[in-house]
Write a structure and sequence with these properties.
The protein is α/β, with parallel strands linked by helices. It has 16 helices and nine strands. Helix 5 packs across helix 8 and helix 5 runs antiparallel to helix 10. The protein is globular, with a radius of gyration of 21 Å. Bound molecules: S-adenosylmethionine. The site of S-adenosylmethionine (SAM) has 20 residues, from loops.
C-alpha cells in the first residue's frame, strides 16, 4: 500500500536498507563522493514510472542512472570527467554475461608479446612485470566504443589498485594501496621502499574473470541507458532534449577542492588521459560565490532537460567553515541564490544526517573540519503550484529489491 510522504522522516527509508545493499554493478569501481544506491533507489521509485527518463548530469560512477535502468527507467548520465564517463557508460549499457566472457577469452587467447618501453616508472613500481604486460595489451586493445570492451575496462579500472596482504588472495593488481583513490606517486614510492612491498603475483585475466562472474549482468532484453561526456555548464545534450527527464537526480561537486584527476592518476593512465587536464576541466572550488555562480549556470542549462511535470533533485551537503567551524546549510544557499532567481519552485527538502564521519576525510586523516555532516536533498520543479501534493511512495522491501528489470 502506498504511504503519504513525510519528508522529515524520509531518510529513514534508506537507512533501513541492509549494509552494502545494491546490485553488484554498483561496486565495479569505487569513486570519490559517490552516494549509496539506496538514495536514488527511493527517489526513482517515488517520482518516476517504468519507461520514464532519469538523468544525472554529475553522474560520477553512474549510481543514479544504473539504479534507474535497473528499475526499468531509461537511465542517462553525463559527467565532464572521462573516468566517470567510462564507468557510467559501461554500467548503464552493459554487455550480456556471454558477450563479456567471450570477449575476455578472445583478448586472453590473442595476447601477443608487447613492449613495456615508455611505461612510466610510477606505474611500473605498482605491478609485477607480467601484470604490466597484460595491462599494456588491454590498454591498447580495448575499444571504448564497444560495450563489451567498455565493460571490461570498467572492471579493470576497479582492480587497478587495492589493499593486499601477502598470503591472502589479491583483490587488485597492485602493491597494497587504498582502492578509493591513488595516493601521490612520491608517497607511494617512499612507502614501497620503507615497507619493501612486493607486487602480488596475479594474472589480470583471471582476476577479471572472477570479478565478471559476480556481476549478475542483465540479459539482452533488459532496460539499458545512455551516457556521454559533458560539462554541466553547457547546454543539455540532445538525448535529454529529445526526451526530457521526469527526474533529474544529482549530487553536484562539493564546495571544496577535490582533485578527481590527481587522485585518480593510475586509472587515468589506463585511460590514456592526463590527470592535470582532467582537473582543469572540472569545477572544484572552495569559493562560495564561484560555487553559486557555477550552480546557477548549471540550473539554467538543466531547465529544458526536465519535463514540465518533472523533478530536479539536488543532493548537497552542509559545509563546515574552516576558520570558525560554523556549519553552513549550502543547500539553502543554492536554493536562495541560484535556483529561486531562475524560477525553480521548491517542493520540499529531505535532510539526511550522516551517522559517521565522511569516509574520504577519514582516509586522509585531514580536512576533518570540512567533513559533510548533513546532506540535504532539494526537490525542485518548474511551475507546479504548491498545492499539488507530491506523489505517494510504496514501502521499499529491501531484501527483494536488487534484481534488474
Ligand atoms: C559528488 S560527485 C558525483 C558522484 C555520483 N553521485 C556518484 O554516486 O558517483 C560530482 C561529480 O561532478 C563531476 N564534475 C565536476 N565538475 C563538473 C562539470 N563542470 N561538469 C560536469 N561534471 C562535473 C565530477 O567529475 C564528479 O564526478
Amino acid at each position: 500500500m502506498s504511504e503519504h510522504v513525510s519528508l522529515s522522516t524520509m531518510s529513514r527509508r534508506w537507512r533501513r536498507a541492509p549494509r552494502r545493499w545494491g546490485h553488484p554493478l554498483h561496486s565495479v569501481c569505487s569513486y570519490f563522493a559517490m552516494f549509496p544506491p539506496t538514495i536514488p533507489h527511493v527517489f526513482v521509485r517515488w517520482l518516476t514510472k517504468p519507461g520514464d527518463v532519469v538523468y544525472d548530469p554529475f553522474s560520477g560512477r553512474g549510481t543514479a542512472p544504473v539504479e534507474a535502468c535497473r528499475l526499468g527507467r531509461l537511465g542517462m548520465g553525463s559527467d565532464a570527467n572521462p573516468l566517470a564517463y567510462v564507468l557510467t557508460a559501461a554500467k548503464v549499457d552493459p554487455p550480456t554475461m556471454l558477450e563479456a566472457q567471450r570477449r575476455l577469452l578472445m583478448l586472453r587467447e590473442s595476447m601477443q608479446p608487447v613492449t613495456t618501453r615508455g611505461v612510466p616508472s610510477q606505474i611500473r613500481m605498482l605491478y609485477s612485470g607480467k601484470v604490466i604486460r597484460q595491462l599494456i595489451w588491454l590498454r591498447d586493445r580495448l575499444d571504448l566504443q564497444r560495450r563489451d570492451d567498455r565493460f571490461i575496462m570498467a572492471l579493470l579500472l576497479g582492480v587497478m589498485h587495492a589493499n593486499y596482504k601477502p598470503g591472502r588472495p589479491a583483490r587488485g593488481l597492485s602493491i597494497s594501496m587504498p582502492n578509493t583513490f591513488s595516493m601521490s606517486p612520491e608517497y607511494v614510492r617512499r612507502y614501497i621502499e620503507e615497507h619493501r612491498l612486493k607486487p602480488p603475483d596475479v594474472d589480470v585475466f583471471d582476476l577479471l574473470e572472477i570479478k565478471l562472474e559476480r556481476m549478475r549482468l542483465p540479459g539482452s532484453t533488459a532496460t539499458r541507458g545512455l551516457a556521454w561526456q559533458q560539462d554541466a555548464r553547457e547546454p543539455a545534450a540532445q538525448p535529454v532534449l529529445d526526451r526530457p527527464a521526469k527526474l533529474v537526480f544529482t549530487s553536484p561537486p562539493y564546495l571544496s577542492v577535490i582533485k578527481y584527476g590527481k587522485y585518480n592518476w593510475v586509472r587515468l593512465w589506463m585511460l590514456k588521459q592526463d590527470p592535470r587536464s582532467v582537473d582543469e576541466s572540472l569545477v572544484s572550488t572552495g569559493s562560495r560565490s564561484k560555487y553559486l555562480a557555477f550552480l546557477s549556470t548549471v540550473l539554467k542549462e538543466l531547465a529544458p532537460a526536465v519535463r514540465e511535470d518533472g523533478y530536479l533533485c539536488l543532493m548537497i551537503g552542509d559545509v563546515r567553515e574552516r576558520g570558525t567551524g560554523k556549519n553552513t546549510n549550502l543547500a539553502e544557499l543554492v536554493w536562495e541564490e541560484a535556483a529561486r532567481p531562475l524560477g525553480w519552485k521548491l517542493r520540499g527538502v529531505v535532510n539526511d544526517r550522516l551517522p559517521t564521519e565522511h569516509k574520504v576525510s577519514r582516509i586522509w586523516k585531514r580536512g576533518r573540519g570540512q567533513a559533510t555532516k548533513t546532506d540535504r536533498i532539494l526537490i525542485l520543479s518548474h511551475n507546479v503550484r504548491r498545492s499539488v501534493p507530491l506523489p505517494p511512495l510504496d514501502p521499499v522491501r529491501w531484501a527483494a529489491a536488487t534484481a534488474w528489470a
